[in-house]
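For the sake of transparency, this paper describes our internal protein records without simplification. The record that follows is passed on verbatim for readers who wish to inspect the format:
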Amino acid sequence: MIGEDAFIGSNTALVAPVSVGDRAIVAAGSVITSDVSPDALSIARGRQVDKEGRAAEIRARLRRKNR
């Protein structure tokens, strides 16, 4: 259930079953897995992780596979 006057930011996923309370705000790009209380701001995003050199390894593996 999405409460009255709640705001759901763009590119947000609400993973059922969750409720968003009245006047709550959900930040864009969030993945909401728990209920959001009325008047709360919910921000649910994973932290960016960069793995140095992995892109080159993946490209090399894909090239070998496509031969």
Notes: DSSP finds one helix and five strands in the chain.
